[in-house]
Amino acid sequence: MSLRTGLFPAVALAVAGLLLTGCAGAGGEAAPGAQRSAGAASTGFAGHLGPQAQMVRSQEIPFLGPQTRARISKATQQAVVVVGEGPDSNQSATTLYERIPGLGWKAVSDPWPAHNGLRGWTDDHEAADHRSPIGVFGLTDAGGKLPDPGTRLPYDQEAAFDAPGTGFEGEPLRGSFDHVVAINYNREPGTTPLDWTRPLGDEKGGGIWVHVDHGGPTQGCVALKLDRMKELLVWLDPAKRPVVVMGDVAALRR
Predict the structure, then answer these.
(1) CB 217 within 8 A of CB 168
(2) CB 83: neighbour CB atoms within 10 A?
């Protein structure tokens, strides 16, 4: 996995030195014909580190402070770390990490350029604030308009994953929901991403996904290029209790 497009300078330098509400669009339950599957193949980490590198580089995830690390369960072995450039920025970098037994956390991808909410990040997400929620959230369910690319998460292929219209910068949204992973913020895990249940109440927003990048900021989701979304879906393994760790640099260092 390699970085194929530019990364904003602040986070790119930091990485080197350290080594919606409503994005879901239409709500409602999935249609009875929704296809829900559990995908297949694994792409687990197979690298090898020398003894010195094992002690120095493989123990913790860069950027994360003690409060953030404490929110990651000891049972979690996969983490999608989304680091925002700043509290009001809609540009971020996403890196995949895997916990290697006896060694700690190891990056298994380069940083991938990403978009987040138009107005940046928040600790207190509300509907239509156009900010992405800060925190550590489970990743248990996926879906999209296109067929399952081979994920092991439950996957709903459904025509309701539609993204009409244009984004904040006039870019077309078509294809944004071809593949999505639901972020377990204010939703019921174990349901289709289209499920509209909001345990915290509708005023706290919902429909926060990782989805295909449409070339501009989101309403609160995290957006990755299409090829990266496919890589992410194939990599995620529910047996490893994957989470997304997301927020701006200062928030994640707490």
Answers:
(1) yes
(2) 27
How far is residue 86's CA from residue 89's CA, in Å, rounded to a whole number?
A: 5
Question: Which amino acid type is present at position 111?
Answer: P
Residue 45 pLDDT level (bands cut at 50, 70, 90): very low
- Residue 166 DSSP symbol: B
pLDDT by residue (tens digit) across 217-249? 999 999 999 999 999 999 999 999 999 999 999
Query: For residue 154, what are the β-bridge partners?
Result: 38
Q: Count Cβ neighbours within 10 Å for each residue of 175-206 and write b for 16 or more, e otherwise.
A: bbbbbbbbbbbbbeeebbbbbbebeeeeebbb
- Specify whether the CB–CB gap between 198 and 46 falls below 8 A: no
- Asked whether 133 and 22 are in contact (CB, 8 A), the reply is no
- Whether 221 contacts 173, CB under 8 Å: no
